[in-house]
Amino acid sequence: xxxxxxxxxxxxxxxxxxxxxxxxxxxxxxxxxxxxxxxxxxxxxxxxxxxxxxxxxxxxxxxxxxxxxxxxxxxxxxxxxxxxxxxxxxxxxxxxxxxxxxxxxxxxxxxxxxxxxxxxxxxxxxxxxxxxxxxxxxxxxxxxxxxxxxxxxxxxxxxxxxxxx
Length: 165
Fold this sequence. Notes:
The chain has 165 residues and is an alpha+beta fold. It has 2 helices and 6 strands; from the N terminus they run H-H-E-E-E-E-E-E. The chain has helices spanning 3-14, 28-66, and strands spanning 80-86, 92-100, 123-125, 137-139, 145-153, 156-163. The strands form 2 sheets. The chain has a 4-stranded antiparallel beta sheet with strand order 3-6-5-4, with no helix packed on it. Strands 1-2 form a two-stranded antiparallel ribbon. The chain starts with a helix and ends with a strand.
């Protein structure tokens, strides 16, 4: 940031006027040095707090992504950090900067879906639209014979073809 941008940011955020002259006090240099050091400590503390809060939020978001509840296409972005800047009047101030307080962590990738379970060689699902009764025997083009079976389940009847020859 340029000095003019710093002065304007201070005016905007704090409502102070950096164009006012410094008082003529012999201890003013010491006071200015103390304010500069304190502003740096405050900015660092605020930035650590922002980073910690952002990382917690990011981990919560990543947990939702890894659980498959949300896509990973819109990760949370870090907030802008604080800066300790010296105005043209010599005093130091803490202002909100324009740069992110920290980098975005690695974006979690969605886990791949599990591979489908292969059908056993002796059982096949009933195709959609099949209206044949249980016990019907079907001869496949390769000469194998399949018998339609039914099995009660808690959700109703389950129909399938079982290889018989």
